[in-house]
Structures are given as C-alpha cells and as structure tokens.
Specification:
Strand order of the largest sheet: 3-2-1-4
Largest sheet: 4 strands, parallel
Helix content: 40-55%
Number of domains: 1
Structural class: alpha/beta
Radius of gyration: 15 Å
Order of helices and strands: HEHEHHEHHHE
C-alpha cells in the first residue's frame, strides 16, 4: 500500500507498510528549510506512534559536520530530538566519503551504512522490510 492509498483508503493487503516509514533525507545544510521538513516529518510520525527511521543520503550526510561546527544552526533542536529518540538509522558511507564528512559522522555516533564503494540504504531492502519511503530533498 502506498502513501496515497493509506490517505484515500486503499487496500489492506500490505497494511504493515502504513506503520513503517523511512525518511530518505537528501537535503543538506545548503537547503535547510527542506531538510527541516524531513526532520519534522520524522518527529511527527514518531509522536503519532509510527515506526520511522531517518537515513542521511547525498548532501544530508553533511548535517553532522554542520551541527558540530555550529550547534546553534536553525533546526538544531529538531536534530537533537531525532538523535535522542533513536530515529537516525545512519548515513550513506559512499556519500559521506564523497563529501569528506566520514569523521564528523563517526564523532557524532552516526553509523555509516556502507563503505566508500557502495551506496546505502538499499531501497529494495527497505521495501522488503515493509517501509514506505519518503525522499526529502
């Protein structure tokens, strides 16, 4: 069941997906308002009792470095809530390497989901695990 089906009352054949969301955050510090939408979506899903995981992909792998350099950036409170609530699944290692932010991710305690040669997360695996994916960015 897709997100649209869930909103308009589609089939219950794959109802488990409506309870699991993967936020595929691709917006980085240069696109903070868009990224904050992703932060807010994750927190809203979690507050409503849904299972949600945030995955840092592409430019979004720069967030740990950005908050490390300037902890008072806009939306830092939402970032801290996401970290404290365990909603951050990890960061793409390929992208973190490409943007030279591996060390910042590791210092922030963010798991790298792959190495420099492979992209992550696997959207096929997420789909197989019943996640509805929401790309942001």
């Amino acid at each position: 069941m897709g997100l649209l089906d869930a909103v308009v009352g589609g089939s219950d054949a794959a109802a488990e997906t409506e309870d699991r969301y993967a936020i595929l955050l691709q917006a980085g510090p240069d696109d903070a308002p868009v990224a904050n939408n992703g932060f807010n979506y994750a927190l809203e899903f979690a507050d409503a009792g849904y299972e949600v995981q945030v995955f840092l992909d592409g430019q979004a792998t720069k967030w740990p470095s950005a908050f490390e350099e300037n902890p008072d950036l806009p939306f830092s409170h939402d970032w801290e809530r996401i970290e404290q609530r365990g909603l951050l699944a990890g960061a793409c290692g390929y992208c973190a390497n490409a943007f030279d932010v591996v060390d910042a991710c590791e210092r922030s305690g963010i798991d790298l989901l792959s190495d420099e040669a492979e992209h992550a997360p696997s959207v096929a695996d997420l789909a197989d695990d019943g996640y509805e994916m929401l790309p942001i960015g």
